[in-house]
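Dear U.,

For the methods section draft, I wanted the exact inputs and outputs in one place so we can describe them consistently. I've listed the two proteins in the order they'll appear in the manuscript figures. Please don't edit the token lines directly; just add comments below if something needs changing.

First protein:
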Amino acid sequence: MSETTTDVRDTQEPELGEAGAQLSTAPQEQAVPGSFGGMRAPGARGLLAWTGREAVGWARWFWRQLTSMRVALILLFLLSLGAIPGSLIPQNSVDELKVADFKERHDVLSPVYEKLQLFDVYSSVWFSAIYILLFISLIGCIVPRTWQFVGQLRGRPPGAPKRLTRLPAYTTWRTEADPEQVREAALAMLKKRRFRAHIAGDAVAAEKGYLREAGNLVFHVALIVMLVAFATGELYKSEGGKLVVQGGGFANTLTQYDDFRSGSLFNTDDLAPFSFTLDRFDASYERSGPQKGTPREFKAHVTYTDGVDGPQKKATIEVNEPLEVADSKVYLISHGYAPVVTVRDGKGKVVLHDAVPLLPVDNNVSSTGAIKVLDGYKDKNGKKDQLGFAAFFVPTYGGPGNGTMFSQFPALDFPVLNVGAYHGSLGVDAGLPQNVYQLDTDKMTAFRDKDGGVLKKTLLPGETLTLPDGAGSITFEKEVKQWASFQVTQQPGNGAALIGALAAIGGLAASLFIQRRRVWVRAVRGEDGVTVVEMAGLGRSESAKLPEELADLAVTLNAEAPIAPDPVVPADVPVEGAEKSCASPGDTASDSGPAAGRTSGSNNTSATPHESSRGAMQ
């Protein structure tokens, strides 16, 4: 994102010239377009020209603001705020039944939410506007900075400023080596340290840390990739759920789903062709201790085919270990029990024989549901009728007289099935959608026991409940199957989103921890014929590492260009500046490297690399 604050080095550009410029590709902040000010009001033709220039100025200013870091952060913050109601308020794209239920319970808030499009947050006008503005902001930031960065890579580090002493990190010493020899040694040393370096005039110019800006650009490009991936996934995604009983199967067609949701641009023809069969389901639980009943293993063993006529393959689906087939992922969501029941009419004809899945209501898999006989049943008079049984199943019954019907353990240790019998209209002939796990008794009549209550009975495996007046019977067979619920998702863009996220992390790390800096080494012959070596460094921001790095470079170069001894001056000859406290180079530099500080004639106010008012490296 474009930086709107001026770097510390920008204020030094008049002094440092090109050497202090372009340490960053961030555009400079521009002032808001002004008005006439103190100028005389223009005429009609001038007013028209001024209006055009003013419009262009305002457009440029607006573009600068849109592509600035401040506005981009505001847009990101607004995008995060916009996602909050999408998480707290039911969404039509996720569950329309929950939305309808919310509207029934909140008749005052619902109209307001509908006007604000809070039931469709991610497809709303305001959320899309924020999303698009953020997208434009990122692109507007990246494109000019990329071209500027490419230009910097193709160019060379700028030459040394006239006064290296003005730079924040600086050191100097005198050597008997030739200036050309010093510059060649400095050039080889800097290139060995992976600096981009070249000789410019009487100095060596070097620069390092280009990966900082590259990381910044990678971070912004990765954000765009993530935004595109997110938009693609939302527009073209599909997601559906399917409950499969052991021995049953599923084919990836729209009619096979229990529930199905998709993006606005998704086409049902894009459903990947595959199918699978649930061969068996394995579950194990903790048998003792404080975690008794805690699931230890859930495994769905399936046989699947990739494509219409693909070969059959075996696979095991576990929690968080989906089956990946044909650009889709099949997740294991939940599991339960499906007791096998047989329903007969008054003449003993079997009208239903099936495993009926029931939904768990607690951690011990106490389950509830409905057993419905829609067709084929006739009462004792031969008249067509429908049967319904309210069912409650427990895999581990505590036994009669213990005060509870709920299961004591999730495994099939002592299964029982409690049923309550009804007959009449199940309400399915009206053509309205109906929950298959609930029994609507509004248009049904309960079978009565001898006390006048609803006819109910708790059945053990193999036991039968006989309906009164020769109406038939229901038998709990000695078999209980297991079922598994699967979620099938097809969401393009997940791979790109993952790559974008990893690239964003890497780019951000590079932009935070890599410092872009420039180093100059000047070597000129002094008036006394001794070569004066100056080294200085400049970074994009103040950092303690820059002086340390410059000190290390100076020590390394000092091995090729050792410090020259000070000239011997007779005691009776006055020396200019003798009132200053002078130290011989050997007193300070022999152990610590080159002396630091400002030169004064042939003598130095010498200090070790970590001494002096500015530090050895200023």
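Second protein (the one for the lower panel):
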Amino acid sequence: MELIASNFAPIMFAGLIVFLLLGFPVAFSLGACGLLFAFLGIEMGVFPASIIAWLPQRLIGILANDTLLAVPFFTLMGLVMERSGMAEDLIETVGQVFGSIRGGLALAVVFVGAMLAATTGVVAASVISMGLISLPIMLRYGYDRKLASGVIAASGTLAQIVPPSLVLILMADQLGRSVGEMYKGAMIPAMMLIGCYVVWIVLLAIFRPNAVPALPPEARIYREDNGSAGYTSLVVLMTLSAVVSVFLASHMADIHTWIEGREVTSVAMDEKVVTAMCGGAFVAFLIASLNRLFGLTLLSRLAERVTFVLIPPLLLIFLVLGTIFLGIATPTEGGAMGAMAAIVMGFLRKRLDMTLFKQALASSTRLTSFVMFILIGATTFSMVFQAADGPIWVEHLLTSLPGGQIGFLILVNVLVFFLAFFLDYFELSFIVVPLLGPVAHSLGIDLIWFGVILAMNMQTSFMHPPFGFALFFLRSVAPDKQYVDKVTHKVIEPVTTMQIYKGAIPFLCIQLVMVGSLIAFPNLVTGNLDVAVDVDMDAVGAQMLDSLSGQGGYGEGNPFEQGYGESAEGAVSDPFAAPSSSGYGSDDPSQALQDSLSGQ
């Protein structure tokens, strides 16, 4: 028994693995393991029986967590946008824009996947939508099956790393950091990952042109009466929009000076980017609206179609992320605005009815309930694990690794990579991250950087052959039997499961390279964050003491030296000192306060 008590934390962790291997649901495995070892630990005297009294307060804390309210809001926004036909319109329109070049359809899938990720944030919705819409088109015009499958699965997983990603919200909550800062840190890595996908497709178009053919002329539906494609007016409109954006960005300080009536010399880069892009998009939308309203024929059919399809979701992205980055709204408020805007947009476009809306609400409720049950189970397990000094055991285990920060990051990412074969990112966020976060902090690792690295790594959980969820989603909609194409009337061969797996491997390697790049170059994440303000807590405490000592009502001198009661020996007792009989106290009141806060 003494051996078990002295190794209680590792035995408890091994018990959790046994529960999971037995096939029980993750949420119930976590809760059952936590309660079982709680009663076992009380009986063995590992920790006091009062630990059970802590559980209700912990669970109430979950329900009172405002940050987690962003999960149902962003989920509802994404599902409403997906059910209102936005994905179909985007893929069709962007495919027409890039269809005239080799690899154009694959590029369209990447760009649409990025936009869906920034508006939906739901991997399943993105993969299934693009699989149903773009895969038949790519097969129709001779795309390599492995590439077509891989690019759809990979682009769908961008919802994991492109803000407003649900996994970034969970990372911020578990690591105790701001969701807005986590979004800012992930923005550049997400753009780089999209760029890597584009470069890979371009290289294939150069060296394997037969694998990524261009659309034939008869497939390009947006043409003018004279037969032209209409790219000229599209380029002119984009150039005008870019000029307006650059003008706004360069004169942002002057605009603030005029509005506020005082001289403003500098404006935050976040505000410049968001405001400039909103201004440019609004100008393009205004020109297209006037062109259609008055029949001015200034724009081609392609330019008008691109404007009306792309601008609304872009403005929705600016509304959500822009307000968060600028500090106008919290992530919860931004998600609520985005969900409401998506609902209004869907009804105005007459692409959303009450049946589809109820389906979106039901799916959002199921996903949110799934997350909350896992979080309740994880909280029960972590509470008992902390009481058994589990974090200390994990810290001693990982801080003794060779290589310091880099060695720790490499081992952690290898661990997460293999755990992602079996666990979803929800389980990884609630089980693994709370154990690794304190160790990373003790090693001096920036937790925003750490969270973005783990989020990028967890994205690979959707691409792992043979267990990747994105591969399962694509398999469910990819043709598994021969069929006759309704446009070309040709017999199309099915897409095999092995072709889906092989197509995912190149994009999986790209993601792993990005993880290594983030470890080697932390400025890719931290360079986009706000400068931290260092606060000298000793100076603040001294200032508070000086302020209190000069106030009336406490007598003269230091109020903390007044008589709050005397001990048996006549000495003045310290009201902030921990009881000597307790094993959880500290002689230093500031340290006691920190220990108390860290345990919440």
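Candidate sentences for the figure legend, describing the second protein: The CA atoms of residues 316 and 338 lie 7 Å apart. The two ends are 30 Å apart (CA to CA).

Thanks,
Y.
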